[in-house]
Design brief:
This protein is α+β, with helices and mostly antiparallel strands and 478 residues long. The chain contains 13 helices and 15 strands. Helix 7 (237-254) packs across helix 11 (398-425), helix 9 (321-332) packs parallel to helix 13 and helix 12 runs antiparallel to helix 13 (456-477).
Length: 478
Amino acid sequence: MDASLNQTLAQEKPACAHSNHEDNLQLIQIPADRNPLLEKLLPSDSDGGSDSVSNFSTLETNTNASISQVDDCDQLGSNLWSGADCYGSDSKLGKQVDNFFQAVGWQALASIATDYRDGIQCSYADPDTYSIGQFNMVRRLDFVDGVRWVARVRLPPEATHFPLGRYNSQRAFETEVASMKFFKSKSDIPVPEVFVYDPDSSNSIGAPYMLIEYIHGTTAEDLRSIRNSEPSIFGTSEQDQKFRQQMASIQARVLTFQFPKIGSLYHDESTDSFYIGPDMNTGMGPWGTPAEYYKDLTDSLLKQSAARRCRDPEKEKFFCAPALLNHLMSLYGQGCNGQYSLVNRDFGAHNILVDGDFNIVGVIDLDSVFAGPLEAVAQYPGFCGLDPEPPGIVETNPYALKRIEIMTPQLEEYKNLLMRYEAMFRNGMASISSMLGSRGAMIHLGFESCGEVFGFQNEVWFSSAVAMLKEHAITQCN
């Protein structure tokens, strides 16, 4: 979630011990059955077949050269960390963040890092430099042997600029640590390694913390802004194409992992196994069917909507948007086959680290990893200019119309990319990525949007849901 964090993040504590989880991991093994569209998207044998992109490391990169280029401009990684300046030193929030920085037991945390590495000494890269995201503060730790880590501590509620909403700190911590361990051990997705962590706010440091691997990179979103790239373009057209290919490859990798239940990912340290537990957002679950999941999700969103103050009686009706979406999902949902793919619900340019040439070097903020129904998994990455319009919403604003004109071919291009990589990793099948932009996927996007802390999304998706219901009714009449 920490979209502004220019560094490798991760969080979490081991989940409660359970010795025999029925939610054991299963890799998708589906017989090859390509359709004509996939034949066009997949590389031919003369192109090297699936081996040409069989794992993330084979994608074209020129990391060393580009890092040198960017380092000269001080545009990469911890070079950009500047403390609480973004809040203003005299602002109330800026002062609260600074007070928290002063209160944390940083030296005690450095000692924990030294003890973990058998006495190798370390120190913070700069006595006054740190980075803050929505919920965490990070500092770089440098060891005398050249190894670099990140010390990451959880901000208290009074020092965060983002309302917590559905966010549960404990569950998020557990899911993020589990997700880093999972992808580090079972894939080549470049996530940071987690070394030491403690979710207890009453520990000797004074806050939940973790010590993780430092990855020298900047979020693609931030580097795109620094480089003054064209809207929705990451660097040059060549860099943008390469970045999107690598992003699609990672997204396709994630969805190849399946579990038999719906919910967030957790790790059982006693058995060193991974399982699906309660959803980080709702606190409910795990669920055995999509219908059960969407029912509880709807109830949770309705409670949140009811809790928001609405001074305009005319807008009170928008409160029920989740209920309309739930009915629509019962009409357009794909059901289930008893297995649910993993998805990182916060995957996007704000949480992808790149080098100076926009090669992906890390994926961070993994507290939203979730095993979900097809509609939940078939979503575009965030902060990439890939934001499909809610069905039935007609734009008239010239600026919005221009944005939609530019975005429409980009949506199709990314969908084709994801289909290509999913088919490579799943023996020719691309049943999930082919659903991007589908009615069911858009309805799920509506659920996610209604979960935002700012209630105006309910108004947008209420109007969209009404339009979809009318369309369905007319279709049924015909």
